[in-house]
Automatic annotation (TrEMBL):
This is 1-phosphatidylinositol 4-kinase. Coiled coil: none annotated. The keyword Metal-binding does not apply. It is an enzyme of class 2 (transferase). Residues 475-484 have a biased composition (Basic and acidic residues). It comes from the Eukaryota. It comes from Digitaria exilis. Residues 475-512, 544-572 are annotated as: Disordered. One of its GO terms (molecular function) is ATP binding. InterPro entries: P4KG1-8 (IPR044571), PI3/4_kinase_cat_dom (IPR000403), Ubiquitin-like_domsf (IPR029071). Residues 149-450 form the PI3K/PI4K catalytic domain. The keyword Chaperone does not apply.
Amino acid sequence: MAVSALDRAFSSEYPTKSRSETRVGGWKRLFVQTHTGCVLAVQLDRGDNVHTVKRKLQVALNFPTEESSLTLGDHVLKNDLSAIRNDSPLLLTKTFMHRSSSTPCMSPTASDLQQQRDRGCPIELLVCPRRCSRTRQLVRDVARAIRKGVDPIPVNSGLGGAYYFKNSKGENAAIVKPNDEEPFAPNNPKGFVGKSLGQPGLKRSVRVGETGFREVAAYLLDHDQSANVPPTVLVKISHPVFHINGVSCANKNVAEGGTQAVSKIASFQQFIPHDFDASDHGTSSFPVSAVHRIGILDIRIFNTDRHAGNLLVRKQTGAGKFGNQTELIPIDHGLSLPECLEDPYFEWIHWPQASIPFSEDEIEYIENLDPIKDADMLRMELPMIREACLRVLILSTIFLKEATAAGLCLAEIGEMMSREFTGTEDQPSELEFVCMEARRLATEQEDSSTEHDSCDEDLTQFELDSEDHEMLKEPAGHQFEFNRRNSRNQLSKLDEADEEEEEDDIEVESDAGKLACPKPVNKWLANISKLSTSLKGVSLTDKTQRQLSAGPKVVDSAKTSKSNSNDNGSQLCNWGSANDMLPTSVSFVKLADMGPETWGLFLEKFQELLPEAFRSRKCSVTAQRAKQRLGTSCQF
């Protein structure tokens, strides 16, 4: 494992939860989730290790765990658990099990449900930032409502399982999304099943069971609540309303007392009262600043699913308010921070507000963004987030900062990140062209450096003493045209036929020496040594999911899913359905497979190429505007 990364991610200096840390009768507690969604709390004593946990799970689950692995994000836990934070959610994966399309879903037994029975507080915080004091109070209020018998309401829209939980007054207080009820997850209540937790999901660059982490990450990255993301935390929550293998536990009598609560790991987001969403309202009344700040966040997190249905609209009323003023609330960030560059989807890209230049306050906000600091913060708050996602965050934030400094507006930045679909395949975006060229140059420089070192080894001692070492020459000057319409043949795509990733490929190398990075060469590489870049064991499939339609990139609104929400019977455990519903697309740029040296050189070359890309963009925009001014009245 990457030792320094683990020391930062799992440090005992992390602010702990006093009640759980000082729990009598145990050293610490972990929540272990099987690949089928079953959640168990495991109490550890000092000296317990991974093998101890596996033995306890084998007894509780009544199936062998010798060939399973305990993982936390990228990290496969070997034996020692002393560095793991209290109440961390771990995933138990079947390392060597390969299921065919005819293999049935492994269902929890009655003893499993007994292990999951709520024995205390129905909601326990797993990830709750320091600034979430109000959310802590909200969680306590919802927990009181559960004890009083106030039942949540399932959300019928969307592809995944979601529930409106109420407060003591019976008002909607939070929306809860269990990670094992996501689209294609084992316990999806709407028939979209066929994947285990940790496998590629609705988008191949976002794994099943990990969208909730991204919901929390989006809130954490919304500094000063600039984009107005609702407070979001990660919880372990228990209630009979949840589904197991597509059957609601509330419909199943398990004892004389009636129903039984089932525990889930889920995102818990404050419910925001609103009047409608952006798809039901014209965009003319949306404030420019709100559109800009949501767009800034979407670019930073590389949002692949910003459609009108996940922009809530609330009318502004009261003293001092006049006209048709509105407030925007962005939600549903589970398909952001992909593990490789995808085709993003920005609903706002053609809105007039996006073409208005940034204000001075917005420019200052962007200038103050620190992608390295943000990545370190996410490692600390969300140790289960994958390093590949953090690389996408760093790259996107650098691109945003440099593009803003070059004078580009929000719409232009979004267009440079978006692919164009021509014929039957995607063309790389302008951002991807820059990344492809930067990687080529970084690889060439690294190869030439290796060749230089090899030649030095053949020199005699006399030559070493009498001659000065020659400095490594920079690669020859190059002219790189950022015209994505005509440059397809100049830059070849990455191989699209890589094999599907194996679950045991996520192990990270433990040699701390491999974390060393090259000497900083610019303002961003100054902190590059902080990155945990030992990702040689991480492999991603190059075929990332093409969007489900030519319109909004992910079908997630109520309008598109009502017809599917009630057809549970024939779709449950239909193992072929998941892959059948996922059209493939390509990944032109992979970031996870770069070693630390290559990653550092890549960022250096990336920034060197950006000025030319921005000049090319400005020239093309100017030419297009000049063409439009000529008029079309004489064309037939």
